[in-house]
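pls design
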């Protein structure tokens, strides 16, 4: 069999990281990324990019922990290399704060992040509305630089990038042996997934270089995440809202909520507003599928539906998707050698 041809549909975080894992695990594959949008016009460009896992109710916790651990380990190594500034990956310390003490004082990921511990009474004095808190150090991706860094690595490995909207995965059948679906919320139309829905998120980016620690209200409603150059303030979670237009009232509300946690943000400047649609499901869709039409087969690997936590688990799910692509290729090689006999 000639070099297997793999098409990855989608150039957000999930498509690019999956393409990179395929190149790393299958150097003989010819990989192309096909997408109607590239950075800076994807949902992934809007994300705050902090590594604090969101929980997927339909996925076993040990699997989610494995995905998070693989992602943390991968990005920690980048943050500790000469590539750190170009890739936008950096360590950030701060606090997750609770209005009421939670039942479980340590989440499943507490031994993956660095230095996890309950906040001291003295630290909690900073947040008089909150009773309990967790202090830790995690990683943050400044999203557009990280996506560009991934694109650069893919191009260096010979991966072709095509601007193309795919209306039906069967369009790719004559050109590619395996198709990998990383279309994010686009999978709702592309493969008619009714279990996939948008959770709209609006964030505000500001210049406030004195803010060095992250602050996250544990219900996820309000957060302050300092990046290398800008601070991301959030947020909103609006289920089934497909609107990508920023809402000025929401911007003011986010800003007011963040100022109540970090009053110095009153002096922030250069405000920019971003909106994205989190591709949400009960669980990430990460599986192989053999589509069949009139006796013809198309091998597909799905990797989408990362909702509010794509950055936190992307490397783990990309590695698993690449493993599934490897299984497809092994099956193709098996059937082509049987055909020769
Ligand atoms: P996308 O980035 O949307 O990429 C999908 C790609 O597929 C795009 O390139 C699109 O053009 C392409 N595509 C779609 N349909 C087609 C088609 N038919 N043909 C061709 N191409 C197609 N996660 C965290 O872990 N930490 C955070 O702090 C965080 N903050 C967030 C804040 C906000 C406001 C939002 C909205 C999200 C946040 N997330 C966060 C979640 C994270 O952004 C997502 O989980 C992640 O970006 C999903 O990546 P993706 O590649 O699946 O989707």
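designed seq:
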């Amino acid at each position: 069999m000639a070099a297997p041809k793999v098409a990855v549909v989608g150039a957000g975080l999930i498509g690019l990281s999956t393409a990179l894992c395929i190149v790393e695990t299958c150097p003989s594959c010819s990989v192309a990324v096909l997408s109607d949008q590239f950075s800076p016009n994807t949902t992934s460009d809007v994300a705050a990019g902090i590594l604090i896992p969101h929980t997927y109710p339909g996925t076993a916790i040990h699997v989610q922990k494995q995905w998070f651990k693989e992602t943390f380990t991968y990005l920690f190594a980048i943050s500790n290399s000469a590539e750190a500034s170009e890739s936008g990956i950096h360590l950030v310390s701060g606090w997750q704060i609770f209005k009421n003490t939670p039942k479980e004082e340590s989440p499943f990921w507490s031994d993956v992040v660095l230095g996890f511990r309950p906040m001291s009474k003295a630290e909690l004095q900073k947040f008089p509305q909150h009773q309990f808190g967790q202090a830790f150090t995690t990683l943050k991706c400044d999203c557009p630089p990280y996506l560009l860094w991934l694109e650069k690595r893919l191009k260096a490995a010979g991966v072709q990038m095509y601007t193309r909207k795919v209306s039906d995965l069967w369009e790719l059948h004559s050109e590619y042996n395996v198709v990998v679906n990383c279309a994010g919320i686009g999978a709702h139309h592309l493969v008619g997934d009714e279990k996939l829905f948008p959770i709209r998120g609006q964030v505000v980016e500001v210049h406030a270089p004195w803010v060095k620690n992250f602050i996250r209200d544990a219900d996820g409603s309000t957060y302050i995440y300092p990046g290398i150059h800008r601070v991301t303030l959030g947020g909103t979670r609006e289920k089934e809202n497909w609107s990508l237009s920023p809402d000025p009232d929401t911007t003011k509300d986010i800003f007011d909520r963040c100022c109540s946690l970090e009053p110095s943000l009153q002096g922030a400047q250069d405000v920019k507003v971003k909106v994205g649609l989190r591709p949400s499901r009960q669980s990430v869709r990460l599986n192989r599928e053999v589509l069949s039409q009139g006796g013809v087969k198309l091998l597909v690997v799905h990797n989408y539906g990362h909702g509010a936590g794509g950055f936190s688990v992307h490397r783990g799910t990309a590695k698993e998707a690449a493993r599934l692509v490897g299984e497809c290729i092994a099956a193709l090689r098996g059937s082509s050698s049987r055909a020769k006999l």
